[in-house]
UniProtKB/TrEMBL annotation:
<keyword id="KW-0472">Membrane</keyword>
<feature type="transmembrane region" description="Helical">
    <location>
        <begin position="180"/>
        <end position="199"/>
    </location>
</feature>
<feature type="transmembrane region" description="Helical">
    <location>
        <begin position="206"/>
        <end position="226"/>
    </location>
</feature>
<dbReference type="Pfam" id="PF12412">
    <property type="entry name" value="DUF3667"/>
</dbReference>
<feature type="transmembrane region" description="Helical">
    <location>
        <begin position="97"/>
        <end position="117"/>
    </location>
</feature>
<keyword id="KW-1133">Transmembrane helix</keyword>
<protein>
    <submittedName>
        <fullName>DUF3667 domain-containing protein</fullName>
    </submittedName>
</protein>
<feature type="transmembrane region" description="Helical">
    <location>
        <begin position="232"/>
        <end position="251"/>
    </location>
</feature>
<feature type="transmembrane region" description="Helical">
    <location>
        <begin position="263"/>
        <end position="287"/>
    </location>
</feature>
<keyword id="KW-0812">Transmembrane</keyword>
<dbReference type="InterPro" id="IPR022134">
    <property type="entry name" value="DUF3667"/>
</dbReference>
Length: 296
């Protein structure tokens, strides 16, 4: 068996493609393109974007065929992917954390490439866009009788004025898009704790709720990703309804029980989810803009 591999190695002019004497991973003797001890490839090239893309597609689509079955359950059968994982049928699907990271990464990547935060932020007053929001906020601050409210509006007006300067909004967007994925990911344990509290009578392990949360947020990012398409963006208002419907069906499938209790729990969890997400996004925006409110 060594003859063909030795002839192959000797025929290679480029030494970077030659078989090494020992496996780079486990140092076992090499007799072919794969290590007999650990199974790793014995010949490695410098990583390129094409190589990464080929490896991803080969691993998830061609070789193991994991991606398509995972997407089918994740997108069209709410909660079923969670049940499959809990039942031990895991090898044929992409891991929960991987599918979450994939969709969140793609969303924030395309969001940054599309420049979703425009160069001139608009504030709507009476359903009409205000071209110079800082001027409107300054007038609003002058009309405020409460000193604390005036300080808040003045601070917001200052930030809007700062963002109007060339390059400032781009810098703000860069900081925001850099911090936001980490902030959203940090909320995963909090969301799982909410699910654990609402379903505390079911006595399920906390890990079950973490698993459910990862799959749910993977679907949410998939919906957000679709909303970046211009033809779909006009109907992005339906995204919230689709996510809520998905949540209720997933809760019913995973936790069973009657529909009405699941609908009530879904409404409670969806409201808490939206409030927490809004608070975190607000905090990240404040941190990104360098705004520090000092209310005394």
């Amino acid at each position: 068996m060594r003859g063909p591999y030795l002839r192959l190695r000797n025929s290679m002019a480029d030494t970077s493609h030659a078989l090494p004497d020992n496996c780079p991973n486990c140092d076992a003797p090499v007799h072919g393109p794969y290590c007999a001890q650990c199974g790793q490839e014995t010949v490695h090239e410098l990583p390129t974007l094409r190589e990464f893309a080929h490896e991803y597609l080969h691993h998830y689509v061609a070789a193991d065929g994991k991606l398509l079955p995972t997407l089918k359950l994740l997108l069209f059968k709410p909660g079923q992917l969670t049940l499959e994982y809990l039942a031990g049928r895991r090898a044929q699907y992409v891991k929960p954390l991987s599918i979450y990271v994939t969709f969140s990464f793609l969303f924030f990547l395309f969001l940054s490439l599309m420049g979703s935060i425009q160069s001139s932020p608009l504030v709507y007053v009476d359903n009409r866009p205000v071209a110079h929001p800082e001027q409107h906020l300054a007038k609003l601050a002058a009309s405020e009788a409460d000193p604390d409210d005036r300080k808040v509006v003045d601070a917001i007006a200052g930030v809007m004025t700062e963002l109007q300067q060339p390059g400032k909004l781009a810098e703000f967007s860069e900081h925001l898009l850099h911090r936001l994925p980490y902030a959203v990911f940090a909320l995963m344990p909090v969301f799982a704790a909410l699910f654990a509290f609402v379903y505390r009578n079911r006595h399920k392990n906390y890990g079950v709720h973490v698993l459910f949360t990862l799959h749910l947020n993977a679907f949410i990012f998939a919906v957000f990703l679709l909303c970046l398409i211009p033809a779909v963006r006009a109907h992005s208002g339906c995204a919230a309804a689709a996510i809520f419907a998905y949540l209720v069906v997933a809760l019913k499938r995973v936790h069973e029980g009657r529909w009405w209790p699941q609908l009530a729990r879904g409404l409670l969890l969806g409201t808490c989810y939206a409030l927490l997400s809004g608070m975190v996004i607000g905090v990240v925006m404040i941190a990104s803009s360098g705004l520090q409110l000092r209310l005394h």
